[in-house]
């Protein structure tokens, strides 16, 4: 019998796990089986060729963001993958208002890609530029942005751990003598801001946390942590872009063909990656998991975590996340020149929208959901072309949704209601503006 068929029966072991333990006490052979399966399912995610979101620009409008070292007390716990020091980039603005962006860029899956990543700018800071710009997203100085006068903090991605890692040493299961310290890097940035800005001293201080792709996953996982760290005098708002990995109850189209049954892609990814990264998990989500005899590691992934985020959150998510579909869930089929089935695409869209729209009625959650087959390419504030169009949903852009969130404290729920050709409206994107325009 396939071992994974039995794994759900072991989930009761989570009841003995503490809230700080990211995975239940599976046997070594069970964890090996999960690891093998996860690598097979997810390895194409790590090798996607166009994964830095957004791209770094060294020329731009206005004042650049400048490379800044972490506080000395964090220097030994915030290294990039290769052990080089981590830096964040800061542009001074209103000292009582901060916008912080977590860069995306895939993640580590196995030894080969992790060690390769450590030789690049996505795993090492040794060749990072001194100054960078964000022309199109939430750290833009474009006066149309409600965040243009904020203090801007760009978190460059070099940990490969979706901003969840808590490693302080390069050793232990799955770490390959590399550092996964993304969550620690977020904590270091917060410490620096609290020490250097007039931040939190007045009740009208504002903090806007956002990130794209892996940074969107990091936004979900760190949102409540940021709010609890900054305290009651700071109004924290979060906006993950394409961070819902994965829609609820997702099963890769080809899992059964390699003998994987009884677990969803969500569950396999969460257990493996949480163990590998020593992931930080949202406290209230972990309490829920332990109470329900689920592995606390489930809190890594968006569909399980999002219902437990108490901080106001604006989710930007396409109906069909192209990266998830093309490079993970249907990847094996695509290599064989096949495609996802119609039923699979319909289910993917349904699971994405039903969960998010349901949550929007139960908690402070807004939603910007275009009928597009894209990942992050259309989820930013401004088009890369001066005369280009932004994606519009029900007459609103993502910029409109962010403005409402920041300036009026109102969360829009805008879901594309365009209609495609008869017979294919449930699985074919119908938005007229789905072009890559975020750089």
UniProtKB/TrEMBL annotation:
InterPro entries assigned to the protein according to its UniProt record, in alphabetical order: PAE/NOTUM (IPR004963)
Entry keyword annotation includes Plastid: no
UniProt keywords, alphabetically: Signal
Signal peptide segment: 1-16
Pfam families: PAE (PF03283)
Molecular-function annotations in GO: hydrolase activity
Coiled coil: none
Protein name in the entry: Pectin acetylesterase
Species assigned in the record: Triparma verrucosa
